[in-house]
Amino acid sequence: MTGIERAGPDFSVDAALLAEAFGVTQAQVQQDMRAGAITSRCEAGVDEDAGRWRLTFHRGDRAVRFIVDDAGQVLTRASFPIRTG
């Protein structure tokens, strides 16, 4: 898999995509996911955003957000710092 795929209500995101976004290795992404150090949120678009999904991943003081269509194609991508505590 490369990128983001959708199967029913679920999305699968390639570790390589997150590794690039967070500046770490794919192995580190997998380790962080297992340890709960990377968390995610999936939000469905409504009204004019219907048919789009916002997938947001948090790791430490950084976040990456993908806006995808129903097929999982990335429409936009953003990476940004987040406030912690």
Give the key terms:
2 helices, 85 residues, four-stranded antiparallel sheet, alpha+beta, two-stranded antiparallel sheet, SHC Adaptor Protein
How many domains, as an integer? 1
Largest sheet: 4 strands, antiparallel
Q: Please tell me how large the radius of gyration is.
A: 13 Å
Kindly state the percentage of residues in helix.
10-25%
Overview of the molecule:
- The strands form two sheets. A four-stranded antiparallel beta sheet has the order 3-4-5-6.
- The model has no long low-confidence stretch (mean pLDDT 94).
- A hairpin with a 7-residue loop joins strand 3 and strand 4.
- With 85 residues, the protein is of the alpha+beta class.
- It contains two helices and six strands; from the N terminus they run E-E-H-H-E-E-E-E.
- The protein has a single domain, classed as 2-Layer Sandwich (SHC Adaptor Protein), CATH 3.30.505.
- The longest helix is centred in the middle third of the chain and has 10 residues.
- The chain is globular.
Secondary structure blueprint with pairings:
Layout lengths: L3 E4 L2 E4 L1 H8 L3 H10 L2 E7 L7 E8 L2 E8 L4 E8 L4
Antiparallel strand pairs: 1-2, 3-4, 4-5, 5-6
Helix pairs in contact: 1-2
